[in-house]
Amino acid sequence: MTQIAIATFPKFTALDGVGPYEVLQRIPEFDVIFVGHERGEVRSENGMLGIIADATFEEVPRPDVLVFPGGIGTRPLVRDERVLDWVRTAHETTTMTTSVCTGSLVLAAAGLLDGLEATTHWSAYADLDKLGAVPTSRRVVEHLDRRLITSAGVSSGIDMALRLVELLVDETAAKAAQLFIEYDPQPPFDCGSQDKADDVVMTRVIEYASVRS
Predict the structure, then answer these.
(1) Any catalytic annotation for residue 191?
(2) Is the distance from CB of 69 to CB of 17 less than 8 angstroms?
(3) Separation CA 157–CA 213 (nearest Å)
(4) How many degrees, rounded to 5, is the angle at CA 107 between CA 81 and CA 66?
(5) Is the pTM here over 0.70, yes or no?
(6) One of 23, 27, 101, 158 is an active-site residue; which one?
(7) Residue 41 β-bridge partners
(8) Which of 20, 26, 28, 187 is close enough to 161 for a disulfide, judged by CB 3.0 to 4.6 Å?
(9) SS3 category, 133
(10) Which pLDDT tens digit goes with each residue over 105-128?
């Protein structure tokens, strides 16, 4: 079995972790486990959703695959040596180390992205730059020679996970997972990136973000 560890932490973004989980848990050869500072419930950034961490970071020191989600809760993690040490140690032997959204800030703080192109949520490009990575707006960024994949905001974790399945198994497995979850995006609006949003929409985003922060 391929062990896949998805990190949890207070104030994580739910879809950052659950999106990849829904893809990866479809593959029979994959064993997906949620890990955190301690066992038990961890609440999402708005407090409305809880995920159970079934193991501590130390109990899963060397997973085959690491998925680090994002969320406002990543900000203190860039100074959390317990988490950063776990990421560094895990990456020594992972088949692939990945992130979704601002999870890349944690990978960068651990020193894994120094001088490399990486992506994150569009609102955190400056934060990623300060941590030594080179921000890009690409949805999924791969450095396969270094066993690293970063993905942009929230929903991009599904795209990253499908690519991960292709790399770890094969293209047919990835397509099967896509069909399993009926991932066939046909949104009613074409406003999923900064360059497609007008000032009115951007103002509303900033308004909503300020309420949740």
Answers:
(1) no
(2) yes
(3) 22
(4) 100
(5) yes
(6) 101
(7) 52
(8) 20
(9) coil
(10) 999 999 999 999 999 999 999 999
